[in-house]
C-alpha cells in the first residue's frame, strides 16, 4: 500500500481557484457543445456571478477534474502524477466520453460546501423522533443537491395503538405526505430539485392505501414502488392469499388475495405511472448488498434461528456455525430435487450436469449471515418436525411456497428432505487428542484415545447416550455403561474397545436382575466424551452429541445402531404388514436429533407422544438394610417410529446389534407402501424474539433446515445512510466508423478505448468519495466503510443506430448484455487494482467478496438516470431508445428543427436526404411508414413508443444481468395501452430477472400532452365544425347540442355571438402556476357581467403561451354565446369543469395549492364571482385525464409534454425520470 492516509483527512480539503493553480494551466483540448448543451450548462452548471456565466464548459471540466484529482495526493502521488490524473479526467469529460452525476459537475471545486453524490438512502424509524429526524436529514440532503430513497415499511399501520401516548398511529402514508411537503419547500440552489423514492412492502397492512396514494394528485415529489416479496409473487401465480405483517409486532394481522392487490397496482400505474414494483427478495440476494453481515435490516426478512440444523456436504451444521465458518461461501447445502428439477444443474467447467446425476442434492452457497434479532414463530408438524423462523419464512408445501404465517393447520403438507444427504468425509475428530496427562498430584496418566471417527466410536457413543451415564464435576468422574441380560454380545464387543482406549482392562460389575455395569474412572477419560458432546444430564435432557452431526456416515450409523439396540425395539402389530421400528426416550430433543440423522440417510420417521400418568413402585431397584428401594415413573415418554418403506432401509443400512437384529430379520413384510416425504402442519406458535440467520444459494434459492424444505432469500436491504457516486460512459463514442459495415459487430466497437475509459471512470468515482463534503456525519461514516460507486452507460440507442441494429431485436439484447458484462469485468478489475494500492473497502473482509481478490468498492456498476448529462454530451439517455427521430419547436421568432444527426448522416450518405423529407420527419417524429425512407432504415430508427413493451423489459433484463446495483429504465407504453399490457410488463420483468420495473403510459400523468403529426385530413372552412372521431382531439366533457338558427323566425339576432365593445373594464389577477406566473384578466360588459377572459403565461410564441391564450379564448366564447344561463352561472360551470385538474408539478399547500394552469384560472374565476373569498379556495379532488390520441393515425407520435421551465413540448419520461430535451430541465 502506498501513502496510506487516514480516511478522515480527505474531508474539508481546500478547494477552488488556488487548487486549480497548483495543478497548473488548463489543457488546450476543447470540446464540441451543441446549442442545447450550452443552454443547459449555462443555466445549471457553469460558475456564475451577477452578470452571468464566468467560466466556459472547458473551464468547468478542468475545475471538476482538479477538485477530484486532489485525492490522488493523499495516496502518495506526486504533483506531476496528480496532474496527469487530472488531465485524464479532463480528457474523458471534455471529449464527451464520460461524465459524473450532476451534483459533481455542479459543485466540485466551487467552494460552495455542497456534496457531489446524487443518491442517498435514509432510514425511517417507527417513532416520532425517528420520522422527523429523517425529514430533517432529507431536507439537508436536498439542499445540498441530492435525492433520497425511503423505505416506510418500518412504520406501524394506521390506527394501531401507540402505547406511549395512548393514541393511534397515523400510518406510513400520512408521513409520506409530510416528506413530500418538506421536499416541496426545499430549493436546491436553483439548480436541482429534491427527488424521492418511497417504498412500502407488499405485506404491510397499509399497502392498499399506499398503492392509491398518488391518485388524488397530492403527492408530487415522490415516485413510489411496491416492494414485492417472492411470497407475494408465488401467491399471485397460484391465485392465493398472502399474509399482512405488522412491522411493529411482526405478527400476521390479516390476509389479502394477491391477484386483487396486483390488479390494484396495475390500475394505479395505468392511471398515474405509479407505483412501480421492486422485487425486494431478488434485490437483496444480489451483489447490490455485498455486506450482509454488517448492514442493518430495513424490513422483515425470512430467516431461521441459529440452532436449526442444515444438511450440507460437510454434514449437518447448525445455522449459526455455518454462518461463522462459511459466511462467504465454501460449503454446499442440501436441496430437494423435487424443486424445479430442470433448473437444478451443476457447472462442470464446460457444461451443466443435472443435479440428479450426483445421487445427492447439494449446491454451493455464496454467503451466509446473521440478520439480527426478530420476532419468530415455531412451525410443528404431526410427525414431530419443527423449525423456529420469522413469520415470512417460506416452506415448500404440496401447494407451493407458503410463508410460515400463512400455513393452514391440518391442511398444508410441508415437504421434508426427500433424498439422502451427505455426511462429512474428514475422519479427523474436531479437537486435538492428548493421550498423556499429568494430574494435580503430579502423577502421569496414559490413555490411547482415538484421533479419528470410526464405527466403533459411533457404537460407544450410541450406547453411552442410550444406556450409559457420565459423571463429572467431583472426584468420582466416571463414564459408565449399562448392559441388560440380553445385551452381553454388545458388552463383549464394546469392552475391548473401551479397555484399549482407557489403557487397561476394567472389570464388569454385576447388579440385580442380570444387569451389568462397566465404568471407567478418570477426569481425562470423561473429558474426551464431554468434548464429543455427551452431557452429564438426566434422561429427559439427553441430546445427540453435537459432533455426530458432522461425523462420517460410518460413525453415524454406528451411533444409531447402538442407540436403537439400547432403547429401541420392533413393535409388533397383529394387523398384517403393520409392525414398525421404535426408539423410546424421555427426551424429545434426543429423538429430534435422531430423526434428522435418519432423514439424512433417506429414512423418514415420526415422533409420537406416549406419555401417561405418573406411577410409583413399578419394580425394585436394589435391596438396602432399610428395605427394598423401588423405581417409579413420571409417565413422560416419547417414541420415534419408523413405518413403511423406511423400515427396510433401516434394516439394510443400520439395523440392531445382537438379538434385536435377529428379531428384525424375522419380521416378514409382503411389501412396503411408498412414503410421502411431507408432513401435515399442526401448529404455528409465537416464539418470541430470537437472533436469526439466512444464506444465499443462487440456483434453487432453497435449502433444508431441521428436515423441512425451505426457501432462502438472502434478503438484505441497502444500508441506511449510505450514498453512491454515479457516472456514465457514452457508448456512442466507441463506434468505429472506419470499419466496414459488413464486418462483425464486435469488430466495429472500440473495446480498447472502452476499457481505458472504464478504468479512468472507476478511479474518478473512487476519488470522488475521498473529496466529497458529505452533508451528514452518519453518511460520511457509512460511505467510507463501503465506498460504493455506480458506473453506468448512456448513448446505447445511438450505438445501435450506428451499428444498424434495431433496438427491439435479439441481437441488440445480446449485445447489451455483452457490453455491460465487459464494463463490469473491467470495472471490477480496476477496483481490484485500486485495492492493491489503497486497500479494500473497510468491510471487505465481511463481504460476499471475501476469499476473492480484494475490491476497493463494495459495488462498481449501476445504470442510473443520465438526465441532463446526456444532453451535455449529445447522446441518447441511458439504455433508453430514442424518443423521436426529429422534433421541432419555436424559440422566440425562430422555428428550430432538430433531426437525429445519425439519421441525417445516413440519409446524406445513402442519397435519400432532402429538406422536405427532414421537414416531414420533424412533423411526424417518426420514419415508420414514411415514403422516401428505406425499409431497413425505418426498421432501425424505431422510437420508444413504437417498441413493444416486451422489448423494453428484455433490454432492461439483459443489462441487469451484468450490473451490481439497479438499472434505471422506463417501460414506455402508448396512450392506448391497457392495464393488461402493464400487468404483462410487470410479470415479464419478474420472470426475466429484473430487480424492479417502472412503466410510463403516454398521458398517464394527467397533463395535456402535445403531439406531432396531428394535421387534419382535409381543410375545414371557417364556418364548419369538424366531427371528432373516437380518440381524436381533447378529452370531451358533456357537450350540449348546437343551437339551431332558423331563418325568418326573428331569432337570428338572439342566437348570434355577442360582439365585443371597443372599451371594457376589468380586473387582472396575478397567480403563480406550475408553468410560471400567470396574469389572468376578467373583463365585464356594461351590465357588470363577466364577458371575456385573457390568460397570459410563458414567453410569447411558446406553446405554454398558446395554450393559456386558447383557454382564455374558449372561456370568452362561452360567455359571448347566447344561452338561457346567466354569465355568472356559466362562469360557475366553467369553474366546476376546470377546478382540480391535476398536472405533473402542483405547487403550494392547503389554501395556496395550485395543481395546474386550468386549476389556477378556475380559482381566479371562482374568486371573481364570489364563490370563495380571495385566497381561500382549496381544491380537494383531482381529475385524472388521459392524453389525447393523435388525428394522424400511425403517423401520430408523441413528441413530449410541456416543460415547466421553457414551456416547450420536449419533456419526456425516461430512466424513471422527466427530462427536457430543449432546456435540460430534469427532476433527477
TrEMBL record:
PROSITE patterns, sorted: INTEIN_C_TER, INTEIN_ENDONUCLEASE, INTEIN_N_TER
Q: Does the keyword Oxidoreductase apply?
A: yes
Q: Which InterPro entries match?
A: Hint_dom_C, Hint_dom_N, Hint_dom_sf, Homing_endonucl, INTEIN, Intein_C, Intein_endonuc_central, Intein_N
* E.C. designation(s): 1.17.4.1
Per the UniProt entry, what are the Gene Ontology biological process annotations, in alphabetical order? deoxyribonucleotide biosynthetic process; DNA biosynthetic process; intein-mediated protein splicing
- Family annotation (Pfam families): LAGLIDADG_3, Ribonuc_red_lgC, Ribonuc_red_lgN, TSCPD
The reaction(s) this protein catalyses: a 2'-deoxyribonucleoside 5'-diphosphate + [thioredoxin]-disulfide + H2O = a ribonucleoside 5'-diphosphate + [thioredoxin]-dithiol
Tell me the GO molecular function terms. ATP binding; cobalamin binding; endonuclease activity; ribonucleoside-diphosphate reductase activity, thioredoxin disulfide as acceptor
Q: Show the SUPFAM superfamilies listed in the entry.
A: Hedgehog/intein (Hint) domain, Homing endonucleases, PFL-like glycyl radical enzymes, R1 subunit of ribonucleotide reductase, N-terminal domain
Does the record carry Disulfide bond as a key word? no
Q: What does this protein do?
A: Provides the precursors necessary for DNA synthesis. Catalyzes the biosynthesis of deoxyribonucleotides from the corresponding ribonucleotides.
Q: What's the protein here called?
A: Ribonucleoside-diphosphate reductase
**What species was this sequence derived from?**
Candidatus Methylomirabilis tolerans
Its ancestry begins with: Bacteria, Candidatus Methylomirabilota, Candidatus Methylomirabilia, Candidatus Methylomirabilales, Candidatus Methylomirabilaceae
Amino acid at each position: 500500500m502506498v501513502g496510506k492516509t487516514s480516511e478522515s483527512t480527505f474531508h474539508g480539503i481546500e478547494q477552488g481557484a488556488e487548487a486549480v493553480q497548483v495543478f497548473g494551466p488548463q489543457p488546450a483540448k476543447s470540446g464540441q457543445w451543441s446549442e442545447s448543451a450550452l443552454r443547459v450548462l449555462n443555466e445549471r452548471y457553469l460558475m456564475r456571478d451577477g452578470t452571468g456565466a464566468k467560466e466556459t464548459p472547458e473551464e468547468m471540466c478542468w475545475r471538476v477534474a482538479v477538485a477530484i484529482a486532489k485525492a490522488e495526493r493523499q495516496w502518495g502521488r506526486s504533483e506531476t502524477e496528480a496532474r496527469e490524473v487530472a488531465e485524464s479526467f479532463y480528457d474523458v469529460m471534455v471529449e464527451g466520453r464520460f461524465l459524473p452525476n450532476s451534483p459533481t459537475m455542479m459543485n466540485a471545486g466551487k467552494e460552495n460546501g455542497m456534496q457531489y453524490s446524487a443518491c442517498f438512502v435514509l432510514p425511517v424509524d417507527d417513532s416520532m423522533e425517528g420520522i422527523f429526524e429523517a425529514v430533517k436529514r432529507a431536507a439537508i440532503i436536498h439542499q445540498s443537491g441530492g435525492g433520497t430513497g425511503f423505505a416506510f415499511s418500518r412504520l406501524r399501520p394506521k390506527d394501531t395503538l401507540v402505547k406511549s401516548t395512548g393514541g393511534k398511529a397515523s400510518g406510513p402514508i400520512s408521513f409520506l405526505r409530510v416528506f413530500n411537503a418538506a421536499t416541496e419547500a426545499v430549493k436546491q440552489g436553483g439548480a436541482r430539485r429534491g427527488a424521492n423514492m418511497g417504498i412500502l412492502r407488499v405485506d404491510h397492512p397499509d399497502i392498499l392505501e399506499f398503492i392509491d396514494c398518488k391518485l388524488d394528485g397530492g403527492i408530487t415529489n415522490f415516485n413510489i414502488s411496491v416492494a414485492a416479496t417472492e411470497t407475494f409473487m408465488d401467491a399471485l401465480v397460484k391465485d392465493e392469499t398472502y399474509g399482512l405483517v405488522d412491522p411493529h409486532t411482526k405478527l400476521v394481522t390479516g390476509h389479502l388475495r394477491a391477484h386483487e392487490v396486483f390488479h390494484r397496482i396495475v390500475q394505479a400505474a395505468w392511471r398515474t405511472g405509479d407505483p412501480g414494483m421492486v422485487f425486494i427478495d431478488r434485490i437483496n440476494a444480489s451483489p447490490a448488498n455485498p455486506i450482509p453481515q454488517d448492514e442493518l435490516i430495513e424490513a422483515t426478512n425470512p430467516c431461521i434461528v441459529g440452532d436449526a440444523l442444515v444438511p450440507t456436504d460437510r454434514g449437518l451444521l447448525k445455522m449459526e456455525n455455518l454462518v461463522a465458518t462459511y459466511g462467504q461461501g465454501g460449503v454446499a447445502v442440501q436441496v430437494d430435487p423435487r424443486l424445479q428439477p430442470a433448473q437444478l444443474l451443476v457447472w462442470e467447467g464446460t457444461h451443466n450436469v443435472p443435479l440428479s446425476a450426483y445421487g445427492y442434492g447439494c449446491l454451493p452457497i455464496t454467503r451466509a449471515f446473521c440478520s439480527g434479532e426478530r420476532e419468530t414463530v415455531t412451525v410443528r408438524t404431526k410427525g414431530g418436525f419443527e423449525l423456529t423462523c420469522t413469520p415470512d419464512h417460506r416452506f415448500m408445501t404440496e401447494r407451493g411456497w407458503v410463508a410460515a404465517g400463512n400455513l393452514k393447520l391440518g391442511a398444508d403438507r410441508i415437504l421434508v428432505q426427500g433424498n439422502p444427504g451427505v455426511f462429512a468425509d474428514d475422519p479427523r475428530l474436531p479437537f486435538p487428542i492428548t493421550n498423556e496427562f499429568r494430574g494435580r498430584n503430579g502423577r502421569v496418566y496414559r490413555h490411547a484415545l482415538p484421533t479419528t471417527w470410526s464405527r466403533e466410536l459411533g457404537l460407544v457413543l450410541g450406547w453411552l447416550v442410550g444406556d450409559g451415564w457420565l459423571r463429572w464435576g467431583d472426584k468420582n468422574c466416571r463414564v459408565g455403561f449399562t448392559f441388560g441380560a440380553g445385551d452381553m454380545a454388545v458388552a463383549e464387543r464394546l469392552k475391548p474397545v473401551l479397555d484399549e482406549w482407557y489403557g487397561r482392562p476394567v472389570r464388569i460389575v454385576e447388579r440385580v436382575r442380570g444387569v451389568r455395569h462397566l465404568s471407567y474412572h478418570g477426569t481425562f477419560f470423561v473429558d474426551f466424551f464431554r468434548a464429543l458432546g455427551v452431557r452429564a444430564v438426566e434422561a429427559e435432557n439427553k441430546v445427540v452429541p453435537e459432533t455426530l452431526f458432522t461425523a462420517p456416515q460410518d460413525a453415524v450409523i454406528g451411533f444409531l445402531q447402538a442407540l436403537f439396540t439400547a432403547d429401541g425395539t420392533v413393535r409388533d402389530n397383529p394387523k398384517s404388514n403393520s409392525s414398525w421400528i421404535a426408539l423410546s426416550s424421555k427426551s424429545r430433543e434426543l429423538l429430534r436429533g435422531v430423526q434428522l440423522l435418519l432423514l439424512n440417510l433417506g429414512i423418514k420417521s415420526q415422533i409420537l407422544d406416549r406419555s401417561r400418568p405418573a406411577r410409583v413402585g413399578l419394580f425394585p431397584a436394589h435391596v438396602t438394610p432399610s428395605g427394598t428401594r423401588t423405581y417409579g415413573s413420571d409417565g413422560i415418554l416419547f417414541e420415534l417410529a419408523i413405518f413403511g418403506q423406511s423400515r427396510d432401509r433401516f434394516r439394510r443400512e443400520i439395523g440392531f446389534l445382537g438379538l434385536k437384529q435377529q428379531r428384525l430379520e424375522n419380521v416378514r413384510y409382503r411389501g412396503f407402501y411408498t412414503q410421502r416425504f411431507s408432513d401435515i402442519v399442526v401448529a404455528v406458535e409465537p416464539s418470541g424474539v430470537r437472533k436469526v440467520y439466512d444464506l444465499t444459494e443462487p440456483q434453487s434459492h432453497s435449502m433444508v433446515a431441521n428436515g423441512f424444505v425451505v426457501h432462502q432469500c438472502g434478503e438484505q436491504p441497502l444500508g441506511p445512510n449510505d450514498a453512491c457516486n454515479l457516472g456514465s460512459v457514452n457508448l456512442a463514442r466507441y463506434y468505429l466508423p472506419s470499419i466496414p459495415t459488413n464486418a462483425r459487430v464486435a469488430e466495429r466497437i472500440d473495446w480498447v478505448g472502452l476499457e481505458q475509459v472504464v478504468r479512468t471512470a472507476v478511479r474518478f468515482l473512487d476519488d470522488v468519495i475521498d473529496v466529497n463534503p458529505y452533508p451528514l456525519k452518519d453518511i460520511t461514516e457509512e460511505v467510507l466503510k463501503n465506498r460504493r460507486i455506480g458506473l453506468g452507460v448512456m448513448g446505447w440507442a445511438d450505438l445501435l443506430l450506428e451499428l444498424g441494429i434495431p433496438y427491439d431485436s435479439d441481437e441488440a439484447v445480446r449485445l447489451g448484455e455483452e457490453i455491460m458484462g465487459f464494463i463490469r469485468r473491467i470495472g471490477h478489475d480496476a477496483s481490484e487494482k485500486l485495492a492493491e494500492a489503497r486497500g479494500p473497502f473497510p468491510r471487505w473482509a465481511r463481504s460476499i467478496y471475501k476469499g476473492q481478490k480484494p475490491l476497493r468498492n463494495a459495488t462498481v456498476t449501476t445504470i442510473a438516470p443520465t438526465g441532463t448529462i446526456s444532453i451535455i454530451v449529445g447522446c441518447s439517455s441511458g439504455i433508453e431508445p430514442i424518443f423521436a427521430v426529429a422534433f421541432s419547436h419555436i424559440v422566440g421568432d425562430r422555428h428550430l428543427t432538430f433531426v437525429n444527426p445519425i439519421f441525417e448522416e445516413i440519409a446524406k450518405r445513402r442519397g435519400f436526404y432532402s429538406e422536405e423529407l427532414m421537414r416531414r420527419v420533424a412533423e411526424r417524429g417518426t420514419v415508420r411508414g414514411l415514403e422516401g425512407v428505406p425499409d431497413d432504415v425505418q426498421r432501425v430508427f424505431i422510437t420508444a413508443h413504437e417498441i413493444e413493451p416486451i422489448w423494453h423489459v428484455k433490454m432492461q433484463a439483459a443489462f441487469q444481468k451484468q450490473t451490481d446495483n439497479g438499472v434505471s429504465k422506463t417501460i414506455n407504453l402508448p396512450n392506448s395501452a391497457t392495464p393488461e399490457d402493464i400487468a404483462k410488463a410487470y410479470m415479464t420483468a419478474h420472470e426475466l430477472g429484473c430487480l424492479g420495473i417502472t412503466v410510463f403510459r403516454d398521458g398517464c400523468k394527467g397533463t395535456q400532452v402535445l403531439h406531432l403529426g396531428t394535421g387534419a385530413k382535409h381543410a375545414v372552412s371557417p364556418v364548419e365544425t369538424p366531427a371528432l372521431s373516437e380518440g381524436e382531439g381533447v378529452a370531451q366533457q358533456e357537450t350540449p347540442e348546437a343551437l339551431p338558427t332558423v331563418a325568418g323566425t326573428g331569432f337570428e339576432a338572439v342566437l348570434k355571438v355577442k360582439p365585443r365593445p371597443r372599451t371594457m373594464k376589468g380586473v387582472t389577477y396575478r397567480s403563480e402556476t406550475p408553468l410560471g406566473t400567470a396574469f389572468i384578466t376578467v373583463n365585464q360588459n356594461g351590465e357588470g357581467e363577466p364577458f371575456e377572459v385573457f390568460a397570459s403565461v410563458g414567453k410569447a410564441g411558446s406553446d405554454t403561451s398558446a395554450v393559456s391564450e386558447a383557454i382564455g379564448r374558449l372561456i370568452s366564447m362561452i360567455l359571448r354565446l347566447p344561452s338561457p344561463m346567466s354569465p355568472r352561472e356559466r362562469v360557475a360551470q366553467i369553474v366546476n369543469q376546470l377546478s382540480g385538474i391535476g398536472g405533473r408539478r402542483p405547487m403550494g399547500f392547503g389554501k395556496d395549492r395550485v395543481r395546474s394552469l386550468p386549476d389556477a384560472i378556475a380559482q381566479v374565476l371562482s374568486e371573481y364571482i364570489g364563490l370563495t373569498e380571495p385566497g381561500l379556495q382549496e381544491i380537494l379532488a383531482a381529475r385524472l385525464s388521459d392524453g389525447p390520441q393523435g388525428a394522424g393515425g400511425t403517423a401520430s407520435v408523441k413528441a413530449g409534454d410541456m416543460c415547466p421551465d421553457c414551456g416547450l413540448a420536449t419533456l419526456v419520461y425516461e430512466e424513471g425520470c422527466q427530462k427536457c430535451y430543449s432546456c435540460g430541465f430534469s427532476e433527477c
